Amino acid sequence: MGAVVAVDFVLRMLMDLPADALPGEGGPEAIRELLTASTCREVEAVGEEAGRAATALIECVIDRMADDAHAAAQLAETLDQRPC
Q: Which residue has the higher pLDDT, 23 or 33?
């Protein structure tokens, strides 16, 4: 589920970029470099160990949110199927 959230974030970010932000034919490569540079700066600032710990925490939080959303959807479905 974390991958879905990450993809959603990246897509939203890319949609907000001006059309000429990544000129030329190297769009996908430029996007990868942009994301890598953003990540590297932050990991370097806090250190690799803290970066890994933060990544693990984010993954756990996203997984918990996904599990809770799934449970809520199942409960809502169950409530909708009860006879009146």
A: 33
